[in-house]
Amino acid sequence: MVISCWGSRVRNLLRMKPVVVFVLGGPGAGKGTQCNNIVKKYGYTHFSAGDLLRAERSKEGTQYGELIGNYIKEGKIVPVEITINLLKRAMDDTMAEDPTRNKFLIDGFPRNTDNLEGWNKIMKNNADVKFVLFFDCSNEICMERCLERGKDSGRTDDNIASLQKRIHTYMQSTKPIIELYAKEGKVRRIEGAKSVDEVFVDVQKIFDAENGIGNL
Ligand code: C5P
Ligand code: MG
Q: Which atom in ligand 1 lies closest to the alpha carbon of residue 162?
């Protein structure tokens, strides 16, 4: 008991403030693909808000499973109370296990004003948002990529009807959030229409230029 108490105190002392990079862009803009590359090269821990929501939806007997499923199919943004808890728990668990793992890529968040307010309320003082990586890609290419992915993704929202709604949500709700961060000088824009390898070259330029953040 005494030992485990000291163990948790030492872990808390070692705990560093999380450093966060938000990753935004339309559906199919390349967020997840490039996050995997960034994890390999720069040692970030990657959490996709969409993946966390899909996992929560699939759990047995979860309180919010049906709600999440409906929102995803409709391309709507799930209330932040649900999403922020999933993100916070994922980050807390990571750092509890290894306090030095404090660099996070949070992909697909904040997607609207509600997401941003939820983040500010729960996380703003507990994490440093370094910048927003923005994959800029035309709606046509986004749509094409997701329809291609939909052939074997098994996702309920990689179909034309859902994609039209997701793109609408992106234009109406997410773009203004990117613009807000741009006004603070926090957006690093990437041309997302190029090939995966070409995009990663541009991504590396950004991470290498961020005062060694990538190489912490
Ligand atoms: O990012 P991804 O394409 O995986 O997101 C899929 C869906 O998950 C979104 O269209 C939305 O319904 C839901 N989502 C959300 N809030 C977020 C991220 C994703 O409601 N912050
Ligand atoms: Mg994704």
A: 10
